[in-house]
Amino acid sequence: RKRKGVSTPSFPDINSQTSSTEPGLLPGETVVREGKAAILFPSANEVFYNPVQEFNRDLTCAVITEFAREQLAQRGIRILVPGEKDRVVVRLSEEKNGTEDQEASEQPEKEQQKEEEDDKKEFITQGLRVLEGLAASGLRSVRFALEVPGLKSITANDYSAKAAALISRNAQHNNVSHILQASQRDASMVMYEARGKKERYDVIDLDPYGSPSPFLDAAVQAVSEGGLLCITCTDMAVMAGNSGETCYSKYGSMSIKSRYCHEMALRIILHSLDQRAAVYQRYIEPLLSVSVDFYIRVFVRVKTGQAVVKNSASKHALLYNCVGCGAFHLQRMGKKMSQGKHMKYSAATGPPVGPNCEHCRQRHQLGGPIWAEPIHDMKFVQKVLGAVSVNPTRFRTSKRIEGVLSMVTEELQDVPLYYVLDHLSSTVHCNTPPMLQFRSALLHAGYRVSLSHACKNAVKTDAPAGVLWDIIRCWEKSNPVKRERLSETSPAHRILSAEPALQACFEIREDANPQSRKRHLTRFQENPQANWGPKARAKAGWVILLMLFC
What is the average per-residue pLDDT within 369-382? Predict the structure, then answer.
């Protein structure tokens, strides 16, 4: 049965996106098509293409487009993508045959052509420089060249000689050799050599197979002032608590098993990025952070400022998580206080909890540090959402992008992490209350509440854990649990033994149902195919392909 807000994706089979009969192919070559790109592979048997990752690449094109629009607007340049009608057309990477030409409305044709040529000359010197550090076949970079306006140059780098040759071949095949250059280097060395202010890249995209941690130190130095870092992590088992010690060695944060593990993973990578940037008197501003399918993806702006870096300790927090009922508390690493025109910094005081949980008397786990500030920039997210919504034919995954970003805009930005409704009810072994009634009870009690894009049953609220358990206690009174079956030392027995201090009202409120849910947007995705996921590592000789297509 199809669930509301959950999409049943219609990803085409890999065979429907490949071709071995296209003119100009060498013997044994196969073409994979995505967006406007047509990517060559040397053999059909070597093709490793995961259509689930198309959402990642579509979202990245949308984000970089809006970032370029912001950056170039400061230089007096306006840009347009096909489907938009209200800005001057600027397309450095347009095809030579001119099949992609778009006309701006309400301008004579000759005047429009002259304005485009003038803007293009200015564009070549003022466009953005992009680095894809782990480019594999070059699909992502080719799509940037074809679909993202405002770019001066794109460097598609890979350590593999075969991959670098394939990137060059794909650049030629897609007529973007004038903007896309292949590079065969160690990604870290490419970035370390670009640390000078004049050599830095405006956008750096890292999408590795597994952890990006070996590249983060170089990345935070090689991105320009106010530049954009786009980072993917697919090592979710490590970041979600299966191997906390490994997570600490890679990211400087202890992951723990929890229901909010996907948002915690986002906050772990943001913590790691900010910590590494702070070494060089730089800091991050998260623009968009999403947990999708089997990976997480963050887009952050990097800036420099010694005074702002002093705030770093107060932006990160340790996490206390109860192993019995799942109640959690955050402890900031530092404290800052305003004293007139100056700020005073000191160590934080704590801990915020006792030796045992006040609700179920179980012990606490200690996790983190994690990023405790907002993980999105709402103004920027609204710009990306608006651009995708008014131009739905630009991407094949536009509906899902719109759904995910709509949920992001509804999230409580100042509330880290979340509870999961079915976990709350299962802790006390009672029936799960409907989401609208539970959200209404929180609103009636005077608290704020939202969903989370990272989990379909998430309850993100500023209400303390005690209020949540009071609401569950009130619900249990009308949906009683057989108390005689509960162990006296179990979290369920200890929680239900206490009388609720709050009398919950479950009358449904209109504002309990968010707009994304009312509009039945594509918010969450069901499994697109059997045995889907990050796939196995590519076989020897073509390991590099998997770095992009997993």
Answer: 97
Judged against a pLDDT cut of 50, whether residue 10 lies above it is answered with no
Q: Name 339's bridge partners.
A: 342
Contact 365, 323 (CB under 8 A): yes
Determine what percent of the chain is predicted with pLDDT higher than 90: 71
Q: What secondary structure does DSSP assign to 278-304, as a single string?
A: HTTTEEEEEEEEEEETTEEEEEEEEEE
The CA-CA-CA angle for residues 535, 251, 548, to 5°, reads 30
Superfamily name with CATH number, domain 128-410: Vaccinia Virus protein VP39 (3.40.50.150)
293 confidence band (pLDDT: 50, 70, 90): confident
Tell me what the mean pLDDT of segment 163-171 comes to.
Answer: 93
Q: Is 391 helix (H, G, I), strand (E, B) or coil?
A: coil
- Which residues, 6 or more positions from 138, have their beta carbon under 8 angstroms from its beta carbon? 39, 132, 156, 163, 166, 167, 170, 171, 180, 182
Per the prediction, the chain carries an average pLDDT of 86
What the block records as the tokens of 28 is 């044994």
Q: Which residues contact 406 (CB under 8 A, 6 or more apart)?
A: 385, 515, 516, 519, 521, 523
Domain range list for the chain:
128-410, 419-519
